[in-house]
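The passage that follows is intended for readers who have already worked through the single-chain material. We present the inputs for a multi-component assembly, then the predicted structure in tokenized form, and finally a short commentary. You are encouraged to pause after the input and sketch how you expect the pieces to fit together before reading on.
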Amino acid sequence: MVQRPLGHPLGLTISGGRAKTPLIEVSLYINFLKEVGLSMLMKIVTIFLQIALIYSFLLLAMGLKQVFAIPFPATLIGLFLLFFALVLKIVKLEWVEKGANWLMAELLLFFIPSAVGIVNYDEIVSWQGVNIVLLIGFSTFIVMSLTALIVTRFKGADAA
Amino acid sequence: MIFLFVTILTYGLYKLAKQLTKKVDFPLFHPLLLTPALLIGAIFTLNISVSDYTEGAFLLTHMLGPATIAFAIPVYKHLSVLKKHIGLILISVTAGSLIAIFSSFGLAILLKMEHHFLISLLPRSITTPLAMEVSTGIGGQPSLTIIFVIMTGILGGVMGPAVFKLFGVKSPIAKGLALGMSAHAVGTNRAIEYGEEATTFSTLAMILAGVITILIFEAVPVTSRFLLFFVN
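Having made your guess, compare it with the prediction:
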């Protein structure tokens, strides 16, 4: 069996390894789970703890937004905080990567309850709905072609 | 109790829709259109009101926060690409974001769209969680914005290859940036076909378009005031 540093599989090294006893217990527990072949459960626990760590950035961002009256949404502030924490090596990539991948892979699931709210707008199935589809199609065409042309122009020679 | 039931129902139908759409390759057969359709059918049959449903499913909606923050990870992973092409990326994505907002606005005025439709259309070119934030911030309806964002993604993903052919775009960097800018996550999914470089640029364009669009609306309140002045 691969010997891993204490606490590593759960991304618990945030404590700097000072609190020895609970980490040993956690790692024994992990080995036990591995031996009974419940690595699936461990994966879920890892993802759960990593999401909790990402979530703490949201809470921190909400606090900062409140205290300094920052005009941006808390999620955007949180995104910047996590980004700089990664750049400054305060948070290691492997502490958040699995949780983040799960969140991004299941992103669609989190919109669905809000998308159901569409039933409150029956205009969408009228002539206005057709107009909207045309508008979005045409506007998307403009955005896509102009962005591509700007990139090609700006890049010059190597664009061809 | 309704909380647990609604969450499990949503998750189950979402997984079902994902399986179904995997087998059928038709753009309108998208999990984000199919799942709400199935859910609306289910809650009407079970006699659950829409507001009870949305309140019950709060946990799922709440996960949008950490999911948006998770976008920091792909940006961090592609930091070297971002640094190397920072000028190109910032210019094209800023221009693209402005074009997206103002072309939606202009066309909506031309077509005499209703007020709440027009406002909810403005952030349609960015990834859904950030578009919802912008929509709420400028007085739009997040559930309308979601539908517009999905339509943008589906239409952009479908027209991508034809647009590149029409304008003779060959560079994977240009394709990636254009797809991520104009069709967010659905476009990025399309960019996978053009290779790893296109995918990286598409991911960066998708996230930065969201950030820049928020900056346009929130840090420059003049933009919102200017646009809203014309509406009223």
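Commentary: Chain A touches chain B through 74 residues (CB under 8 Å). The longest helix of chain A spans residues 39-68. How closely did your sketch match?
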